[in-house]
Amino acid sequence: MLTSNLVVDQLSDGLKSIVQKVINQDRITEEEGVILYTKAPLALLGTLANTIREQKNGNKTYFNKNIHIEPTNICVFDCKFCSYSRLLSKKTEAWEYTIDEMVEILQKYEGKEITEVHLVGGVHPKMGLYYFIDLIKKIKALRPDIHVKAFTAVELEYMCRKAKVSYKEGLAMLKEAGQGSLPGGGAEIFAKEIRDVICKDKCTSEQWLEIHEIAHALGMPSNATILYGHIEKAKHIVDHMSRLRNLQDKTNGFNTFIPLKYRNGNNQMSHISEVSVVDDMRLYAFARIFMDNFDHLKAYWPMIGKKTTQSLLAFGVDDIDGTIDDTTKIYSMAGVEDQNPTMSTEEIIALIKQVGRTPIERDTLYNTVNEY
Ligand code: V47
Ligand code: SF4
After folding, report:
1. What is the model's pLDDT at position 300?
2. Is residue 82 lining ligand 1, measured as CB closer than 6 Å?
3. Same domain for 68 and 9?
4. Domain count along the chain
5. How far is the CA of 260 from the centre of ligand 1 (A)?
6. Which residues of 129-159 are buried (b: 16+ CB within 10 A; e: fewer)?
């Protein structure tokens, strides 16, 4: 602790008292969060985040064996950062799978030890609530053992509205069909002034939070994300995390928080440069400190890259998502380095062990499946 004591001694009094609160495990306020996020030296943030990570999860680093099924990339919305969606009017590079085609994707994994299907796509006007209920029933009929983590709040808001059912009714029907939980997408940045610029036409922040709250009340846990590194400022990041922290206080229904770094390939915000790895580390470390009621912090490796994922394991991260098996297009279409995201179990284990952590295969709900 000598180094961090030296670092703390050099801080201004204001910052020193915030750091003291973190060390004492007292919750910091939004105002304090902005100061810590913008002013604390990276090494100090890293030390604090790593200490919290080890208090919560020891040396464990979680991953799972999953595949993504993306029913379509046709989307009625027009998020400026999205490289993946194709408007209905512009169908080049678009796909729309039938239910049978999606069931066939899963059939290829017969006998393989995957524990999760991550089912998320564009918001297609013709793929509604009843279509997806049918799909989930067929997935569960084929693989009753598999957990279906499906549909962002954006997709859910649209499908419930079109089917003229309340969020509670829609979610209860999906749960009845076999859906186990919700992924964290669609949160982006909650602050209206930013949301209005980057994704004005999709569900509001209030709707996103309401849908997750209802899901939690129905016994469906969920994840939460933030899309960072574009036009947002520190205050928007802290506001976003604070709203999630408040909801977690209420429901305890979030499994994990997943910061998603904005990637600038092939979208309407391509003129915005991507932030540096140092900025990634600051964001993740700060999230680990600020979001004191979240058990897990996930680095989604297909998006952030394998090397940065390894570094982030010393900056608060204890989960790196799954094997994925080249089944997602969201990030390859946004220009990330790894155009065919897949890692074998052996590769994931080696990646985690190389930085001195202990690999744990988990299921969606963080039950241990295998220790390595
Ligand atoms: O909501 C879209 C993001 C999200 C870009 O819950 C982009 O386990 C960066 O939420 N640059 C969808 N990000 C993916 C998602 C997710 C992924 C993995 C695991 C889980 C989970 C959730 O992808 C969108 C948006 O925030 N996104 N375009 C882009 N250009
Ligand atoms: Fe559609 Fe999602 Fe892309 Fe927005 S981020 S345009 S909702 S696919």
Report:
1. 94
2. yes
3. no
4. 2
5. 6
6. bebbbebbebbbeebeebbbbbbbbbbbbbb
